[in-house]
Design goal:
alpha/beta; 2 domains; 207 residues; 6 strands
Length: 207
């Protein structure tokens, strides 16, 4: 079973912790990571781009002139796409870009992302994260003690002081354990978890 050093907030070693291999030390399947990132980004797309086609623009219900005898090409409506002010031909319409992924695929992808961070030695476990006030400067100093540039920080319980202190920091994001996801794990160069968050994540995957 994989083990990791547990630190306190001053980066002093306070112990070691065993990690579940099926969550943090499994085979990294890059194709699943690719599929999951596509899935997450597609679900975020609004899909609201739209143009008016010939049935949606105003006017044009009457034939503009008679069929024959004018010397012009026959026309049925001035709202056809080739007329100025006419409807757009083959324009975009509102749609959903989301697609389906099986639950097992999502689970395996997240385990692959977590394992990739562990195997690259980019995973840090701290005993706890606490702050007595909202302070971006203090939180930045806390992160700098671990000598990392940017990190996804995963906590187990809502903590307004920690979450609000990290909000304005560049390349730092705080998530609760239930919200950890493949895209954010891969986006940030380091993964910092509280000891309780590790337990919560393992509890969700290990039966």
């Amino acid at each position: 079973m994989a083990t990791v050093t547990v630190y306190d907030q001053d980066k002093k070693q306070v112990g070691e912790r065993e990690l579940a291999d099926e969550v943090f030390n499994t085979e990294v399947k890059e194709y699943l990571l690719h599929d999951m990132v596509r899935y997450q980004l597609a679900a975020r797309r609004q899909g609201t781009a739209a143009t008016k086609n010939r049935s949606a623009v105003a006017g044009g219900s009457k034939k503009p002139y008679r069929q024959k005898g004018t010397g012009n090409a026959r026309q049925g409506t001035i709202r056809a796409p080739h007329f100025v002010g006419g409807g757009a031909a083959f324009g975009p319409s509102p749609r959903s870009y989301s697609f389906k992924l099986n639950r097992k695929v999502k689970k395996s992808a997240l385990c692959s992302a977590l394992s990739a961070r562990f195997q690259a030695e980019k995973l840090i476990v701290v005993k706890d994260l606490t702050m007595d006030k909202i302070s971006s400067k203090s939180f930045d100093q806390l992160i700098n003690k671990f000598e990392i540039e940017g990190a996804l920080i995963v906590i187990d319980q809502p903590n307004a002081f920690v979450e609000l202190s990290a909000r304005n920091l560049r390349n730092v994001k705080v998530l609760r354990a239930e919200g950890v996801n493949v895209y954010d794990v891969l986006k940030y160069p380091n993964l910092l978890l509280t000891d309780a968050a590790v337990s919560e994540i393992e509890g969700a995957f290990v039966k």
